[in-house]
Amino acid sequence: MPQKNGVAQEAVQNIKRVSKTMTEAVARQILGVTEDSSWEEIVQKYENLFERNAKNGSFYLQSKVHRAKECLKEVYKPKEPETKKGKLDTSQTTRHSRTIW
């Protein structure tokens, strides 16, 4: 099998990466949830569908359900606190918090 040059290899990797990604709309359709659904509802639907396919379904459908949940996990992930010049802005945090080792 001939070796691919760097550009061709990168193109193949990009095609593989794009083909593996799932849109939010498709993820919601697979799990049967709407944009108004809470994260708890999504997890409940996921667990129900995942278990159903584990018992008497297909591995393909089970993997689709899993990827749908992972896709929506990114949407529902809490936002990272904003930083200023690499330092955490602690102006909104309580002053009584401390780390105990």
From TrEMBL:
It is a peripheral membrane protein. Residues 78-101 are annotated as: Disordered. Gene3D superfamilies: DnaJ domain. Keywords: Membrane, Mitochondrion, Mitochondrion inner membrane, Protein transport, Translocation, Transport. It comes from Solanum pennellii (Tomato). Pfam families: Pam16. Residues 78-88 have a biased composition (Basic and acidic residues). This is Mitochondrial import inner membrane translocase subunit PAM16 like 2-like isoform X1.
